[in-house]
Each structure stands twice: as C-alpha cells, then as structure tokens.
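Task: sequence design from structure.
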C-alpha cells in the first residue's frame, strides 16, 4: 500500500459536521492538516447519489474518504470509486458507536471481529494505490483494551496496513448514547503511546479529548500524529496556528484572513444554488473568545437562514466583529492614557 507523509495533525471525520463546506473552511486555516470526510457507508457510495456524496473541492487536498462497512468486496468497490474521484486516502471506520452503525455491522462493533477488519483492509488495500488506513477505538464493552487494540492492529498490519488512528477510549455499545461515548468512557492515552513504542514501524495517530495545540504537541512526543475533533470544529481558529507551530511553515492565519479566503468559495457555491446557512454554520466558532464573537454568531445564525441570504451577511458579521474589536482597543488605549 502506498504511504503518505506523516499526519502530524488531522481533523476527525464527524457525522453532520465535516461536510465539504466545513473542509474548505478548515483548509483556509491550514494547508497541511489532513482532512477527513464524514463517514459514508458502502451502500450509500455504491447505490446512492455518488456525484453528490463523493464531491469535494480541489482546495481540500490532502483529504481522506472515510468508509463504513464490513463486506470486503463492497469496501473494495467503494474504495476504487473514492480513489478514482481523487481522494488521497481511504479510511475504514472501526470506531463509531451509534445504534444505526451497529445494526449495519460496521463501526465500533467491528472491534469484536478483528479478523474481518483485516480481511476488509486487505480488500481495500488491494483495490487502490492510495493509502488504506484504520480508525478504531481501544476496545468495546468488556474487552480488555490492551488485548483488543493490539490484536486488531497486528492483524491489520499483517494485511498491509501501516497507519492507524486510535480514539483512546472504549466504546460501550449498550447503555451509552453516541454522545456519551465521546465523554464517559475514560481516556487511556498511555495505551496508545505504548502501541507506538512497541510497534515503532507503524504510524500511530492519537484521537480523543484533545482540546489544544499545547496538548497536541505533548502527544507528539509519544506518537506520530494527533487528530482533533470537536476542538477543531467548535474553535476552528486553532487550526490557523497548525502550519506554523506543528509544521514550521508560514505564519499563523487569523480568523479574519480565513473569512477572506473562504469568501470566493461561498460566492461560487451561492451562485450554484447552495444555501448560505449550509456554509456559515461551520463558521460560528471562528471568533471564539474574541470581542464581537457573540455578534458574529448572532448575525450569521439569524440572517444566514433567511431566504436569499447572500455574502453580505458574512460581510455584516465581520464588520460587527471588527467594530467591537476596535471599540475595545480604543477603550484600552483611553484607559492607558488616563493612567
């Protein structure tokens, strides 16, 4: 299987969040982070609206397609379509704990069938030339994580996989909701660090509960890469520091610069019939913690959903942020002069 450069930082696949509009926004902030699609089931890819489901903007590269499924032939067929569409990586979901995923025999329940996962990965790897990777949990239900994680990784490694993204907590398939599964099972970062230490030839990326680039840098002392999830979505401005801090390239990108870079994409999509709110919903946290953030969110939320809403809504929201920032700075200056 072909391998790509190390993913020092990537943004997690998140259902209903990391759609193509979200990924383009994230790409305005970082040119180097690896981006992942929402999980697409093999059934959707093979039998659904393929043009819509697999569509992505060229600006998104490098971008990975995440698949959900457990039939090797179907996964191979879906992977071929994804590779033909231009995705830079095909990733198999072995971590999602939702009931819908379990009923379809994919996601985290596959942690109980590591030999099947390895068979699936062999099929994907044999079907495409781009890297085939796995995103998994450390275990499910009553599994002993040190056994379940290492067995899954070792069997997949025998099938040719060299890149694993590990969400460092168990999934409880009975009794916890998908939301609770993101918080309640305890994180076990040292187990993932140990996986890298004992399998140094493999590329190990850690995921789960990582909230800042300071935390990411601490993990990078133990593993090859860090995957951010909710932190990247709810406070996307942290992605603006990624290239400079983690890759040693360029300058940090400010939220205002990201808006300027995103603007042409929004205008093209509006012209193609996309509703403004489909794009602005991913921008709500862009100015998190900045004077004017509340006004930014309010204008995008209230004005962005109105019929015919256009680029002027973003301009108005940005002007409100800038105005409040200028006002705050002026007050600080006055206070300093008075002192």
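Answer:
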């Amino acid at each position: 299987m072909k391998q790509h450069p190390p993913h020092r930082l990537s943004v997690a696949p998140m259902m209903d969040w990391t759609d193509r509009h979200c990924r383009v926004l994230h790409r305005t902030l970082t040119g180097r982070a690896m981006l992942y699609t929402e999980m697409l089931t093999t059934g959707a890819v093979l039998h659904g609206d393929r043009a819509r489901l697999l569509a992505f903007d060229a600006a998104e590269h490098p971008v990975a397609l995440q698949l959900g499924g457990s039939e090797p032939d179907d996964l191979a067929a879906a992977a071929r379509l994804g590779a033909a569409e231009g995705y830079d990586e095909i990733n198999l979901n072995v971590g999602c704990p939702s009931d819908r995923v379990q009923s379809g025999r994919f996601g985290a329940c596959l942690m109980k069938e590591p030999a099947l996962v390895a068979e699936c990965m062999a099929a994907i790897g044999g079907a495409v030339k781009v890297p085939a990777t796995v995103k998994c949990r450390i275990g499910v239900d009553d599994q002993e994580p040190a056994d379940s994680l290492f067995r899954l990784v070792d069997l997949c490694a025998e099938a040719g996989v060299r890149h694993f993204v590990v969400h460092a907590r168990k999934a409880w398939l009975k009794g916890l909701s998908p939301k609770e599964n993101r918080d309640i099972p305890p994180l076990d970062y040292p187990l993932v660090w140990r996986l890298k230490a004992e399998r140094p030839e493999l590329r190990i990326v850690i995921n789960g509960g990582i909230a800042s680039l300071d935390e990411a840098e601490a993990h990078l002392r133990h593993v090859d890469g860090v995957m951010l999830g909710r932190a990247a979505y709810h406070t996307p401005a942290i992605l603006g520091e990624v290239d400079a801090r983690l890759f040693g390239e360029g300058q940090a990108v400010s939220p205002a610069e990201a808006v300027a870079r995103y603007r042409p994409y929004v205008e093209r999509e509006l012209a193609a019939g996309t509703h403004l709110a489909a794009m602005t919903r991913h921008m709500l946290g862009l100015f998190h913690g900045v004077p004017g953030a509340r006004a930014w969110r309010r204008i995008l939320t209230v004005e962005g959903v109105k019929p015919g809403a256009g680029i002027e809504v973003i301009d108005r929201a940005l002007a409100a942020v800038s105005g409040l920032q200028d006002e705050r700075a002026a007050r600080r200056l006055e206070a300093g002069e008075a002192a």
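Residues 107 and 141 are 14 Å apart (CA to CA).
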